[in-house]
């Protein structure tokens, strides 16, 4: 069973208060999850690299703070606050956090 920060009802959270960087690697905090979508706060320590992979679901990235590089289908996208990225299901992608990096990752079912 996945523990979530918010109940599956109308609710709110101050994201900056939920950000917590690990000494190394990735910390994933699930905000809300239902049968169709999952909304997570991912916090990556500076220097963390996530090797190329893909997901069977659509995904979005909405950067809250920090800086990194997302390589999506062979193209580099600079991740910095305010950047929003849509990744279709099965799109190969990799990630490198240049500084501590926090973003909302949303998974949704592909059509």
What does this structure look like?
The chain has about 110 residues and is mainly beta. About 5% of the residues lie in helices and about 50% in strands. Strands 1-2-9-4-7 form a five-stranded antiparallel sheet. The chain has a four-stranded antiparallel sheet with strand order 3-8-5-6, with no helix packed on it. It has one helix at about 15-20; strands at about 25-35, 35-45, 50-55, 60-65, 70, 75-80, 85, 95, 100-110. A hairpin with a 2-residue loop joins strand 5 (about 70) and strand 6. The chain starts with 14 loop residues before the first helix and ends with a strand. It is globular, with a radius of gyration of 14 Å.
Write the layout of secondary structure elements.
Blueprint: H1 15-18, E1 26-33, E2 37-44, E3 49-53, E4 58-65, E5 68-72, E6 75-79, E7 84-87, E8 93-97, E9 101-108
Antiparallel strand pairs: 1-2, 2-9, 3-8, 4-7, 4-9, 5-6, 5-8
């Amino acid at each position: 069973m996945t523990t979530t920060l918010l109940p599956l009802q109308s609710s709110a959270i101050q994201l900056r208060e939920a950000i917590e960087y690990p000494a190394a690697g990735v910390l994933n905090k699930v905000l809300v999850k239902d049968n169709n979508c999952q909304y997570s706060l991912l916090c990556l320590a500076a220097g963390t690299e996530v090797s190329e992979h893909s997901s069977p679901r659509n995904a979005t990235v909405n950067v809250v703070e920090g800086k990194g590089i997302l390589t999506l289908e062979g193209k580099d996208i600079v991740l910095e606050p305010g950047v929003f990225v849509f990744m279709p299901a099965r799109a190969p992608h990799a990630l490198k956090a240049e500084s501590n990096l926090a973003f909302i990752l949303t998974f949704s079912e592909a059509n």
